[in-house]
């Protein structure tokens, strides 16, 4: 489930609270090219409102017109296929050879969407199972990620917590990374124990303003990572340029289940960092997990470009499309990174506050 589908569930809850009748359309099957994957959802309000998408827009417009004409699927979900012919595919704006099948249901208390939304917000893994004969749904909690499944009798849509990025360091680069990552469905945890916020904000108190899907903490990075217990939906990236802080985070991050662990810095600094990490209880395979310098090769030089390169690398790995030909770093990291400190591998005491660099 992606961030767009989570927004669909939020819209359904909001519209129902306003007394609106709501229909839910789910992509159940695709053939050939399709604009949206199976499991993608779209909500249609009786007042002509839409949240989410199942196509490039034409099917959405068609369904809105049908709803305006009084279409309701009843208690039993309605199955509709689009793009069976070339003319129909062209009419609905589907790619060449693209066909998709939708399950359209009326949202009621039997739909279990509130339970699904609550589980997602609680960071739980699960599935929503819709009985296509009765329209009744239930939410099941699972220990491992489940697969999407569709049979004539049942539609099973898996869901889980948002993807998460733990960022060490709260500087300008982190601001740009956060601004890009949240719309892509990432939950952000920013960790920086240094007293630098007033300097960055110009005294404006920006860090005191709550931001949806962004959490700021000031504890030591290694303590944070131990506490959060990163899972396979978590990426960790160290951006402080301070070897003391970055190394503290990496010592725990590389032993975690995080799917991505990266650190900013030049190739020279990365080599020194790996030598320092080898002095501790990390195995060569754990150290080999480190992405450093971070970011795809985009020729990035400005903080927004570097943030884009980092997020592109994380997302490519998340989507299983990261290859050796794309694993190159931006030259800007070498220009920004200071030389390794002689005390880089020193373990800080827990009550020591970090100085501003």
From TrEMBL:
Keywords: Oxidoreductase
Gene designation per UniProt: pucA_3
Pfam families given in the database record: XdhC_C, XdhC_CoxI
EC number: 1.17.1.4
PANTHER family, A to Z: ALDEHYDE OXIDOREDUCTASE MOLYBDENUM COFACTOR ASSEMBLY PROTEIN (PTHR30388), MOLYBDENUM COFACTOR INSERTION CHAPERONE PAOD (PTHR30388:SF4)
The keyword Oxidoreductase is annotated on this UniProt entry: yes
Record-annotated XdhC- CoxI domain positions: 15-74
Lineage: Bacteria, Pseudomonadati, Pseudomonadota, Betaproteobacteria, Burkholderiales
Residues covered by the XdhC Rossmann domain: 165-314
Annotated protein name in UniProt: Putative xanthine dehydrogenase subunit A
Enzyme class, broadest EC rank: oxidoreductase
Highest taxon listed in the record's lineage: Bacteria
Organism: Pandoraea iniqua
Gene3D superfamilies per UniProt: NAD(P)-binding Rossmann-like Domain
Record flagged with keyword DNA damage: no
Gene Ontology molecular function terms on file: xanthine dehydrogenase activity
């Amino acid at each position: 489930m992606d961030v767009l589908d989570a927004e669909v569930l939020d819209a359904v809850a909001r519209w129902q609270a306003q007394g609106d009748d709501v229909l839910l359309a789910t992509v159940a099957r695709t053939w050939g090219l399709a604009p949206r994957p199976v499991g993608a959802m779209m909500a249609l309000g009786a007042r002509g409102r839409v949240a989410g998408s199942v196509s490039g827009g034409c099917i959405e417009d068609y369904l809105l017109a049908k709803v305006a004409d009084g279409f309701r699927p009843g208690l039993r979900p309605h199955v509709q296929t689009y793009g069976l012919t070339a003319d129909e595919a062209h009419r609905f704006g589907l790619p060449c050879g693209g066909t998709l099948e939708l399950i359209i249901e009326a949202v009621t208390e039997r739909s279990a969407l509130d339970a699904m939304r609550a589980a997602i917000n609680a960071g739980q893994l699960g599935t929503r199972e819709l009985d296509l004969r009765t329209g009744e749904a239930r939410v099941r909690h699972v220990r491992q990620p489940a697969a999407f499944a569709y049979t004539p009798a049942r539609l099973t849509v898996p869901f889980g917590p948002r993807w998460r990025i733990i960022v060490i360091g709260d500087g300008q680069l982190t601001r740009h990374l956060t601004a890009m990552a949240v719309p892509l469905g990432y939950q952000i945890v920013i960790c920086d124990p240094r007293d630098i916020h007033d300097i960055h904000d110009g005294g404006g108190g920006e860090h005191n303003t709550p931001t949806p899907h962004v959490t700021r903490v000031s504890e030591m990075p290694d303590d944070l990572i131990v506490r959060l217990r990163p899972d396979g939906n978590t990426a960790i990236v160290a951006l402080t340029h301070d070897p003391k802080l970055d190394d503290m985070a990496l010592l725990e991050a590389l032993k975690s289940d995080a799917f991505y662990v990266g650190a900013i810095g030049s190739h020279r600094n990365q080599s020194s960092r790996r030598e320092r990490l080898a002095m501790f209880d990390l195995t060569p395979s754990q150290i080999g997990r480190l992405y450093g310098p971070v970011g795809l090769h985009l020729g990035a030089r400005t903080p927004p470009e570097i943030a884009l390169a980092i997020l592109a690398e994380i997302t490519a790995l998340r989507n299983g499309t990261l290859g050796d030909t794309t694993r190159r770093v931006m030259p800007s990291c070498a220009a920004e990174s200071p030389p390794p400190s002689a005390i880089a591998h020193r373990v800080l005491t827990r009550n020591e506050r970090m100085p501003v660099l």
